[in-house]
Each structure stands twice: as structure tokens, then as C-alpha cells.
Design a protein that fits this description.
With about 270 residues, the protein is α/β, with parallel strands linked by helices. It has two domains: about 5-90 and about 185-265, Rossmann fold (3-Layer(aba) Sandwich); about 95-180, Putative mannosyl-3-phosphoglycerate phosphatase, domain 2 (Threonyl-tRNA Synthetase, Chain A, domain 2). It is about 35% helix and about 20% strand. The protein contains nine helices and twelve strands. The strands form two sheets. It has an eight-stranded mixed sheet, sandwiched between helices. It has a four-stranded antiparallel sheet with strand order 6-7-9-8, with helices on one face. α1 runs parallel beside α9 and α4 (about 120-130) packs across α5 (about 135-140). The longest helix is centred in the C-terminal third of the chain and has 17 residues, at about 250-265. The relative contact order is 0.18. Bound molecules: magnesium ion (MG). The site of magnesium ion (MG) has 8 residues, from loops.
């Protein structure tokens, strides 16, 4: 990219969607609109870093008017923004078409109980996610990750993880599902994007609510743990500042961005 310094924003904002910028249940972002407007005034559009598919994120960008680069499927690929036909500009994950049959064979052989997006119809995905049917269809267009619900014992999950490791696979826990995938995460995607800027590179603000956001928050300069059922599990070591919100979802998101902008304006953001 080698952007001119004049075009470089003061900082980059990377955000998880479900349970962070979007309500966990309704998927609304309305409560974050005031902070989004404040960021827009400064030339900053949040970069989505989500477990969602590229197709889903492009649809959300279109309906929200927030068009920017994005990280999809937990960091499997990065898109430069604009139309989907442009394709990803970087790919970090191995495609589920290369390994999902083996994982299902393993399930069959060991008698382990779990079910995921590849097992479900659009309607079943809709039931498990609360998404409308058209959105469920987009959610099923997965290339790199298999979100699933583990329906077996904790002990068998440990055996499952060992078997996945032999296939060079792992899992990441999101707000609703556990994702089966190869070894990539949102944090690496964010650092890759930042590395494309000229020095001095913009500093990184990251917001998330679940364990699959830990890498994103850990790699940020200012991290925000949005209150959720799982946010207490977030304990990133890397950031110079960690903000924990009192409110969940986009309300908490709005609070945190306002706090960060106030600190930034007072030149107190990274100076403690
Ligand atoms: Mg989330």
C-alpha cells in the first residue's frame, strides 16, 4: 500500500462483530452509531475481524454503510474492501474442503457427538444462530472454518483436539460455536494489515467479546473487552491499555470508543 502519511489514519480500529459491534441476539449495530460517526469524522472506518464468512461481511458492510477492508472466518483471509469479486488479498487458512471429510470420518469412527454448519440446512443454521434465512445461507458459504456445537464429554473433547492436531487442525471458541480450522487467528490478520502501512505505523485499537478475540486483543495497543457471557475469559497480556466495558454489545462498544477518543484527544492514550 505504502500510503502517504497524510492518508494514514491516527489509529486503526479492528472489531469483532457478534456480541461486540453487533448485538448478540438481534445483530443490530444501532447503539454504536454515535461512536461510529465520531470515528468517521476522523477518517476511521472500523475493520471487521469476524468469524463470519466473506459473503456475510460484505452484506453487513452494504447494509451498515461501513465499507472497509475486513478479516473473515477468524483470520483465515483478508479482503481489501469493495466488491467480493475482487477476492481475498491474503489467505492464511487451509480450506475446509481439504480436511472436513477427514474430520467427519473421525467423528464416525470414534462415535463422538458434535454437529456443525456442514451438517445443517439453512433453516437449522437459522435456528442455531437466530439469523434470518437469507443470512443463514450466507453464513453457510464457508471456505476455511467449520463452526460446531460439541455435544459430547469434556474428556472426549480433549481426545478430539489431539486427533485434530495430527491433521494440523485446531479449534477456536466464539460466542456461540467452536470453530474447527487450521492454525490462524484474528490477531495475525490485524498485524499483517498494519505492516502494510509506512512507518510510523498507526497504532491498533481492537474490540472483542469472546475467546476467539484473544489474539486480536493481545496484538493491539489498546484493547477493549466488551462485556459478554465469556468476556471474563479474556485476559490479553500485550496491550498497553485494556478497557473492560460495563455494557454488552454495541452499547459497550460505543462507550469504549468514546473513552478512547477522549483519551486520544487529551494525548493520554499510550502514556501511562
Ligand atoms: Mg463475538
Amino acid at each position: 500500500m505504502n500510503q502517504d502519511v497524510a492518508n494514514t489514519p491516527p489509529f486503526l480500529v479492528f472489531t469483532d462483530l457478534d456480541g461486540s459491534l453487533m448485538e448478540h441476539e438481534t445483530y443490530s449495530i444501532e447503539a454504536a452509531r454515535p461512536a461510529l460517526a465520531e470515528l468517521a469524522d476522523r477518517g476511521i472506518t472500523p475493520i471487521f475481524a469476524s468469524s463470519k464468512t466473506a459473503t456475510e461481511i460484505i452484506s453487513i458492510q452494504a447494509s451498515s454503510g461501513l465499507n472497509a477492508p475486513f478479516i473473515c472466518e477468524n483470520g483465515a483471509a483478508i479482503y481489501g474492501g469493495g466488491s467480493e469479486s475482487a477476492g481475498p488479498i491474503a489467505v492464511f487458512g487451509s480450506r475446509s474442503s481439504e480436511w472436513l471429510t477427514e474430520v467427519h470420518d473421525l467423528r464416525e469412527r470414534m462415535g463422538w457427538k458434535f454437529s456443525g454448519f456442514a451438517d445443517w440446512s439453512n433453516q437449522e443454521v437459522s435456528v442455531h444462530t437466530g439469523l434470518p434465512a437469507a443470512d443463514a445461507e450466507r453464513a453457510r458459504q464457508r471456505e476455511f472454518t467449520e463452526p460446531m456445537l460439541w455435544q459430547d464429554t469434556h474428556a472426549n473433547f480433549q481426545l478430539f483436539l489431539e486427533a485434530l492436531a495430527k491433521l494440523e487442525l485446531t479449534t477456536l471458541e466464539g460466542g456461540r460455536f467452536i470453530s474447527i480450522q487450521s492454525d490462524f487467528d484474528k490477531g495475525n490478520g490485524m498485524k499483517w494489515w498494519q505492516s502494510r502501512f509506512a512507518e510510523p505505523r498507526p497504532f491498533l485499537v481492537a474490540l472483542g467479546d469472546s475467546p476467539n478475540d484473544e489474539s486480536l486483543l493481545a496484538a493491539a495497543d489498546v484493547a477493549v473487552a466488551i462485556k459478554s457471557a465469556k468476556s471474563d475469559q479474556l485476559d490479553p497480556a500485550g496491550p498497553q491499555r485494556l478497557i473492560r466495558t460495563n455494557r454488552p454489545g454495541p452499547s459497550g462498544w460505543n462507550d469504549a470508543i468514546n473513552e478512547i477518543l477522549a483519551l486520544f484527544d487529551a494525548a493520554q492514550l499510550l502514556e501511562d
